[in-house]
Amino acid sequence: MKIRVINQSRHPLPEYATAGSSGLDLRANLESPVVLNSLDRQLIPTGLFMEIPEGFEAQVRPRSGLAIKQGLTCLNSPGTIDADYRGEIKIILINLSREPQQVNDGDRIAQLVFQRVEKVSLVSASELTSSERAEGGFGHTGKN
User: Fold this and answer.
1) What are the residues whose beta carbons fall under 8 Å from the beta carbon of 104, sequence distance 6 or more?
2) Rg of the chain over all Cα atoms, to the nearest angstrom
3) Is the whole-model pTM more than 0.90?
């Protein structure tokens, strides 16, 4: 599948890091570095605009290395970019570490995964069929 992209950043188009990667690496597009203090969050631009085909979404997900090494992760994760959105892709980063963290122009800050989306029709009902799980949730099956 080919996705049309307008790239207004100074960086190459996102790429898969390896042949087995699921996500394309997104880079910060910044005029100057951004410092996030502990628990600060900020919207980081990428300079990318995409035309996602109908029936698909793009999911913004955190990068595991950034999370474990610097405590930076994405809020609203996974974030959904709908097929009809044409604005700039921006990433909500939060610093969950105790120390200030700096984001520089060109840093890989998130990954983008494309998924097919199934549309459904909701039908009003007065009862549901039973299941083994029933109303059990939130850890009802135990710790292990």
Assistant:
1) 28, 30, 33
2) 19
3) no
